[in-house]
């Protein structure tokens, strides 16, 4: 076994399925023994990814030691849990290729996934896999293109070859900051887009929000060391389009519920909610103007209502684009 996916949520399971279809044995780890037992018995992960069969060459386990032979580990752990996970298991993880598969900014430290992984596992080769993708599409074998960002060009090339499949196409970059921030910040704008639609403001307003949101994403990412061309690629603009226009996006659905004044399933991870808070703090330190991000953070905290948020954004001074 050369690859294992740590985290049996929807995205982690979908990645394991895609890689297993490409040949070879793939590991899939869940921290919950009962969840593992159910997946082994049914050959499915209906708790997180209903309707998708697990290929026979996927080994499911709740023991990390079962994947000691895997040189590449995909960390499909929610962003706000990643720091604790890698620190708790650093002795097992360190020294291997570790590919973060989450999107966001840590609320406590303000760091992205690769910085968190590298701090806990200094001997590891660290990368991030991000871009426009829904777990259900990947599991069904539908064509998907993602960004693989790794500061080590040679290691990135090796991981690209190892993790690409005929229908899961990976594009490589060394711009880790740009790839991370595009994937993180688009979730915040997706919440705002959901608010627009849920609040009945229409598709024209959503288009305007996405456009100004992308400008805001780019300003902050460039200030933090990202490249404009990365933000214009899959991990930025591509992911923004997908998550702002589809109800498959949890962040969009969350915003839609906010906009409509409806309850939302709190068991569903919405990375953009915490990222809005973290990104607002980062932007303030960097002196970057991020009005949409600040407004999403205020909405999530319950500090403003949807009508107040809309009025505040529409009353901003007119200026050149």
Automatic annotation (TrEMBL):
Q: Where in the cell is it found?
A: Cytoplasm
Q: Which domain of life is it from?
A: Bacteria
Question: Which Pfam families has this protein been placed in?
Answer: NAD_Gly3P_dh_C (PF07479), NAD_Gly3P_dh_N (PF01210)
Taking every annotated instance into account, which residue ranges of this chain make up the domain Glycerol-3-phosphate dehydrogenase NAD-dependent N-terminal? 3-154
- Which family does the UniProt entry place this protein in? Belongs to the NAD-dependent glycerol-3-phosphate dehydrogenase family.
Main function: Catalyzes the reduction of the glycolytic intermediate dihydroxyacetone phosphate (DHAP) to sn-glycerol 3-phosphate (G3P), the key precursor for phospholipid synthesis.
Q: What is this protein called?
A: Glycerol-3-phosphate dehydrogenase [NAD(P)+]
Species the sequence originates in: Albidovulum sediminicola
What are the top taxonomic ranks of the organism? Bacteria, Pseudomonadati, Pseudomonadota, Alphaproteobacteria, Rhodobacterales
């Amino acid at each position: 076994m050369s690859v294992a996916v740590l985290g049996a949520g929807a995205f982690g399971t979908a990645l394991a399925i895609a890689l297993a279809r490409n040949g070879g044995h793939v590991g899939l780890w869940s921290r919950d023994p009962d969840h593992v037992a159910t997946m082994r018995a049914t050959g499915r992960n209906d708790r997180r990814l209903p309707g998708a069969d697990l290929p026979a060459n996927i080994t499911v386990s709740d023991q990390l030691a079962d994947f000691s032979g895997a040189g590449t580990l995909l960390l499909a752990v929610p962003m706000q849990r990643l720091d604790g996970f890698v620190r708790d298991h650093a002795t097992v993880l360190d020294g291997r290729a570790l590919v973060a598969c989450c999107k966001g900014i840590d609320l406590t430290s303000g760091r992205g996934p690769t910085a968190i992984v590298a701090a806990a596992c200094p001997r590891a080769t660290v990368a991030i896999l991000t871009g426009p993708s829904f777990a259900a599409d990947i599991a069904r074998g539908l064509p998907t293109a993602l960004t693989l960002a790794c500061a080590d060009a040679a290691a990135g090339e090796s991981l690209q070859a190892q993790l690409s499949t005929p229908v899961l196409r990976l594009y490589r970059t060394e711009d880790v900051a740009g790839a991370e921030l595009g994937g993180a910040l688009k979730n915040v704008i997706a919440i705002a887009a959901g608010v627009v639609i849920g609040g009945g403001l229409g598709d024209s307003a959503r288009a305007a929000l996405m456009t100004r949101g992308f400008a805001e994403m780019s300003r902050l990412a460039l200030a933090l060391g990202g490249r404009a061309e990365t933000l214009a690629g899959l991990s930025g603009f591509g992911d923004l389009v997908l998550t702002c226009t589809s109800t498959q996006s949890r962040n969009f659905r969350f915003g839609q519920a906010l906009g409509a004044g409806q309850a939302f399933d709190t068991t569903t991870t919405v990375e953009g909610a915490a990222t809005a808070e973290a990104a607002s703090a980062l932007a303030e330190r960097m002196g970057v103007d991020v009005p949409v991000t600040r407004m999403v953070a205020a909405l999530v905290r319950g500090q403003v209502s949807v009508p107040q948020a809309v009025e505040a954004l529409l009353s901003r001074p007119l200026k050149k684009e």
